[in-house]
Design goal:
Layout lengths: L1 H18 L2 E7 L1 H4 L9 H9 L3 E7 L17 H9 L3 E5 L7 H4 L5 H13 L7 E6 L12 H19 L2 E4 L19 H16 L1
Parallel strand pairs: 1-2, 1-3, 3-4, 4-5
């Protein structure tokens, strides 16, 4: 009889343990998606390994996507946008903006702050009251490629990201500084390789634990 009672108790403890995990949603473009959303080389899954079993990290990155609603490929239109809500994360990490720097997208730069704030506001409806939002300062662009422009990211977008963080009471994670002088980690000038994604994972993980 005692053995029969023990089994449900063990099952209950497993369920409770699972529920106690801190859920982390990583929203972004190809730099977040990496070689694949379920690929262990992607920065979110490298971060999962760093953070350990107390966390559940999910990669919601979609290649080529923009924050801007009027951009050529808005993240807003993707299935992952809704999946984040269903996931109901405790922590939200957003790394969008790189593709917004393309000329066809940045012509709508006056909408960038409002669109970013709107996305955070929408996601907060599906997060606990004490949920945390982190805004990533994008990695450097060592070579303007695919229409992505370093000058726009640094001179125009970064001040807007700081404004967004202040408006939404979000924290920022600097992914720019860790790559300074390390252009070899971004072979095409834009996308970090496995080692570079590892640096991202370490940087974000440290910010989440601070």
């Amino acid at each position: 009889m005692k053995k029969l009672l023990l089994i449900p108790m063990l099952l209950l403890s497993v369920i409770v343990f699972g529920q106690n995990k801190t859920k982390v949603a990583c929203v972004g473009n190809s730099i977040t998606q990496g070689p694949g959303r379920d690929n262990t080389d992607s920065y979110p899954l490298q971060m999962q390994a760093i953070l350990g079993d107390g966390y559940e990290v999910k990669n919601f990155g979609v290649s080529g996507r923009t924050m801007l609603k009027k951009g050529d490929y808005p993240y807003w239109n993707e299935a992952q946008f809704e999946e984040v809500k269903t996931f109901q994360p405790d922590i939200l990490v957003i790394k969008l903006g790189t593709n917004d720097s393309k000329p066809q997208n940045w012509q709508y730069k006056d909408d960038f702050v409002n669109d970013y704030v709107a996305m955070i506001t929408e996601y907060k409806k599906h997060m606990p009251k004490k949920g945390k939002v982190y805004i990533c300062i994008p990695v450097p662009v060592f070579k303007d490629n695919f229409g992505i422009r370093e000058r726009v990211l640094v001179d125009e977008m970064r001040p807007k990201l700081m404004e967004i963080a202040k408006k939404t009471k979000s924290k920022t994670i600097d992914l720019y500084s860790p790559f300074e002088g390390k252009s070899a980690l971004l072979p095409d000038g834009v996308h970090p390789n496995k080692e570079g994604l590892g640096i991202m994972a370490q940087t974000v993980a440290k910010a989440l634990k601070d």
